[in-house]
Amino acid sequence: MRTTVRGGVAAALSFALLDAPTGPVHAEPPRRVVSMNLCTDQLAMLLAAPGQLHSVSYLASRADTSVLAAEARAFVPNHGLAEEIFLMQPDLIIAGTFTTRATVEMLKRLGFPVEEFAPANSFADIRSNILRMGEVLGRQAAARALIGGFDRELATLTEEAGQGQAGRKPVRPIAALYYANSYTSGNNTLAAEVVDHAQLDNLGSGLGLKGTVTLPLELLVMNGPDLVVTGRRFGREGTQATVALEHPALEAVASRTTSAVVTDKYWVCGLPFTLHAVRRLVEAARSLDLRPIAPPALATTSFAPANLDEGARRQ
Hints:
The chain has helices at 2-18, 38-47, 69-72, 82-88, 101-109, 123-137, 140-164, 190-197, 203-206, 217-223, 248-256, 274-286, 310-313; strands spanning 33-35, 53-57, 76-78, 92-96, 114-117, 174-178, 183-185, 201-202, 212-214, 227-231, 258-262, 307-308. By secondary structure, the protein is α/β, with parallel strands linked by helices.
């Protein structure tokens, strides 16, 4: 029976492709919106009018990946499949630029309006995505209000961070970001901007790294950061991906300094919730010894970091 239903949907998709209209531009606010990406899910939930958002991705209801997991359970979950979204008959589909490309392209060919959002790699990107989501949902005033609250809280955090670092000027503590598979964030990443707003220097940026790339554990140990920041692991412990996070050398560095854990869901997506990551680092920096820190001479070695696109990391 299931095969028959799926076969029927596939046949309907094939027929629809033959008569696909050109993508209409939504002159009026959409009334039945489907989001296919964890980051756009949460942004749409923050801005959509009651009853406007119909479906979000299944990831949005997972407490380990979504800040709005409880709220997401009020919407129909989707798994990014063309068949299921076709049957929902949305008048607007929202996706990430890295989201299930085959599905997105098929839905476009079927004539569904699709708005794609690039990952936020800076706080400016967060504001830009909020404004754009407000425009596509016809919720511009709500978007402006959300940005206003975001900027006010950011200003408060920046002031708190500055007060906490007053005894250390002009040298700031160094924070090392270390994720699964030995990745870190360098320049031009949202994580680096989070570190900067916490009045900390990012080790990856100091080493000249760009994007999300591998950081040999030896380099981290040699540079003796003041703060080690790791993500919260979920799923099975002891996997190959997390083995570096359990290395005795990293544990030794963390025991000599201060360590902090920032749950991935707070900064994997560039959203107003990213400010929680700033607050977590501000609190961690506050617990550091207040003696002035000597200007660092960063140790380097020749290595070719493996680059992981910031957007791909969030899929």
